[in-house]
Amino acid sequence: MFYGNADSPHPPPSETETPQSGTEPPQSDAAGYPAPLSEDLPPGHLLPERTHSRSTLAHHGDLRRLRRRYRTQRRVTTLLALGYFTAFLALSALEPDFMSRRVDGLPLGLLLALSHVPLTWLAVVVYERSARRYVDPLAFRVTHHASWAVGPDTGSGR
Amino acid sequence: MTSFSGTAQTWSLVAFCAVVSVTLLLCIVTGPDHEDLDDYYTGYRSLSPLRNGLAIAGDYVSAATVLTIGGVIALCGYDGVVLSISTLLSLLVLMFLLAEPLRNAGRFTMGDALARRAPQRSVRITACLVTIGALVPMMLVQLASTGQLLAFILGFSSGAVKTGCIVGVGTLMVAYAAIGGMRGTALLHILKMIALLGSGVVVTVLILRLFGWEPSSLFDAAAARSQAGARYLRSGLEFVGGPHPRLDMVSTQFAIVLGGACLPHVTMRMNTADSARQVRRSMSWAVSFVALFVPLITVIGVGATALVGRAGVAAGDPHGNTAFLLGSRAAFGPDVTEFESLLFTTVTSALFLTLLASVASMTLACANSLAHDLVASRRKGLSPRTEQTVARLSAVLIGAPVIALATLVQHHSLQPLATLSFCVSASAIAPALVYSLFWRRFTASGLLCTLIGGSLTVLALMPGTNLVSGSAAAAFPGHDFNWFPFTTTALVSVPAGFAFGWLGTVLRGRRAQQEARDRYEGIERLLLAGPPRRPR
């Protein structure tokens, strides 16, 4: 496989990054870092040394952006799903009379319960689309970044 | 009405034999490669998202789920529907919250994912014990109800034959787990899910046709024959016996939401996709299939009460476990043609296959955890071939006592065992996974506190709940040591599980927390973006 034995911890990131990631507050903004996609910059004008550090910095920004997007996506979707369900449960437990009001011949409570099904489908579609649009490109950039891809762990899974 | 006509029984017997032989054959043919550990523990990493989604959904919708939810819907109406919604929501929350980081952190078992944060061997051993503690009760529930279910389908009543059925199905489950590994069980789940959903759709259409395509007349007919009248269509019927019915309902539903999808055999399936992206796509399918299953089981469960009546459902099984079958059977009406007989046989075979597949994959999860977390973590450098052999032997080692126990508990109410599984999962596994994937300062001692403290709280409270003693429907109806006035322990044990993890971390002091934080930063890239790829 791609990665190493789970018994051994994953190697820490390369030397250039560790101090930064240690001192940065985790939720700080990525402002001030160069634009991502530095791999696509013409390398000719830059010294090799600088290219490396620049790309590492960009990579770092990518990682931070990825972290933030994942976090937002995770919180929003989980809270929405659980919130809707909790509201429904609270109504069922506290307002049974309201929930047994008939709408179209069916009790409102049952309709709300079964409304979870189409809403789930909708949520899955929206989640999948937003993840493809906002998360996948960043994750791809992070996993294919040189400092990560040629790590000592690569290909030692078997 | 407790048995079906002779033709249907003969058909079912033939179909069961066919199911057993075909699936065994499939397991042998698709058996894993002896030299490849990844192959054994994760099956095909190459399954398409659709198929993998079917396998995950199949793993998630266990026989206990189908039978119990069908029964609660038939007997309690509204509360049963809410139960099925909680089950669906649980998988949705797993997808949104845990699936992708879990895949990125994990390798084969739950212990692997936890060991990313805390590589100590004690963590692995505890993870293995909690895995077994959460899954064995669930396996017992399903195996022990096998005897009665098959007796009902095939129309025998002898106790010895029922015990024989348990032993037979138990042996099969060990065989599937040991021979097929993750590949074999993935195929079983795909087949089962297709059969279950396919036959479910047909039965649902038939039931709705009987009621003139009018859901409201179906629900009203069920309410009329439920012996509860209008209360059948409002909440509270299931928990009417306890002193705090509302609180009890809310805590039970949350136990299902938190616990259902964190059961280790489900989290283990997250590792069968080859990247977080594939897991997400597989989960999209899996959630969609489970969402499709909810209206199906609602109509079939309510249909059982509407067509057979509560008395008929309760006569099959006091907890309504046969409601799914009764509803399907009644959908075909009193006179069955050959073709309808065949259709009904599909339903029974789908249920039988569900039973086989779910106990097999739970056995597999326990066996894999034993082999990988307990044995392989002690003896480094175990060759893949040896580790596989150990995993296969572990399947037998887990299976034999479970079969023996199942024959012993078959005459008791099985509800407390199922509840125990969900509560351990919600109180120990869910907090452990959430903390270790998202909390930077979470230390190894916090992890151990969560796992051990959460499980022990559940074990301490469970014997005192309503389900174990104190009422006619309890596991020990003749005794009364009921002091915890709820049906699940979740109200206390879930907050306790989270509190233990927090305390275990905070009490360890700043240095341990800083170490945990540094360690988290070391693996953060892996958690967020997955394992590295070779350069393009």
From TrEMBL, chain A:
Signal peptide: none
Biased composition regions of type Low complexity, renumbered to the chain: 15-26
Spans annotated as Disordered: 1-61
Keyword Transmembrane helix belongs to the record: yes
The keyword Membrane is assigned to this record: yes
Keywords carried by this UniProt record: Membrane, Transmembrane, Transmembrane helix
Transmembrane segments: 76-94, 106-127
Protein name in the entry: DUF485 domain-containing protein
Species this protein is from: Streptomyces mangrovisoli
UniProt lineage: Bacteria, Bacillati, Actinomycetota, Actinomycetes, Kitasatosporales
From TrEMBL, chain B:
GO biological process: plasma membrane acetate transport
Taxonomic source organism: Streptomyces mangrovisoli
Cross-referenced PROSITE patterns: NA_SOLUT_SYMP_3 (PS50283)
GO cellular component terms given for this protein: plasma membrane
GO molecular function (one): symporter activity
Pfam families recorded: SSF (PF00474)
Subcellular location field: Cell membrane
Domain of life: Bacteria
Record family assignment: Belongs to the sodium:solute symporter (SSF) (TC 2.A.21) family.
Sequence intervals crossing the membrane: 12-32, 53-75, 81-102, 123-143, 149-178, 190-211, 249-266, 286-308, 342-370, 390-411, 417-438, 445-463, 483-507
Protein topology in the membrane: Multi-pass membrane protein
Organism phylogeny: Bacteria, Bacillati, Actinomycetota, Actinomycetes, Kitasatosporales
Protein name: Cation acetate symporter
InterPro entries reported in the protein's UniProt record: Na/Glc_symporter_sf, Na/solute_symporter, Sodium:Solute_Symporter
Keywords: Cell membrane, Membrane, Symport, Transmembrane, Transmembrane helix, Transport
